[in-house]
Amino acid sequence: MIQVSVMYPNQDDARFDMAYYTEIHIPLIRKLTGDACRRVSVQRGLGGPQPHSKPTYVALGHLYFDSVPAFEQAFGPHAQQIMADLSNFTNLNPTIQINEVVVE
Q1: Residue 31 sits in a domain of what CATH number?
Q2: How many separate domains does the chain show?
Q3: Fewer Cβ in 10 A, N or C end of the chain?
Q4: Residue-by-residue pLDDT tens, the chain, 104 positions
Q5: Does the model's pTM come out above 0.85?
Q6: Cα 31 to the chain's mean position, in Å?
Q7: Where is each EthD domain found (predicted)?
C-alpha cells in the first residue's frame, strides 16, 4: 500500500477553503480515480512543535493506493483536471510525496 501525501504549507498569505477541499475537491479525486483510491484522509494543521506556534502545514491530504503503478494509472489521466481545481480552494503550492505504508 502507498500513501500519496499532499501537504499545503502554512505561510502568511495562505488561503485555504477547507469546506471546498473536503466537499468538492476530494470527492472529485475519488470519482476520477475510482476504486484505485482505497481511502483518503484529510487533516487541518493546528499547531507546530512549540506551544502556541503555527502549524507547518495548513492542511494535509492523503490518498491511498495499492501501488505506485496503480496510482499513476488512476491519477495520471486526470492530473491536469485535478491540479487545475487547486485555485478554487487555495493559493498555495502543495508539496507532494509518495510514501510506502509500513505500519498502520
Answers
A1: 3.30.70.100
A2: 1
A3: C
A4: 999 999 999 999 999 999 999 999 999 999 999 999 999 999 999 999 999 999 999 999 999 999 999 999 999 999 999 999 999 999 999 999 999 999 98
A5: yes
A6: 15
A7: 18-91
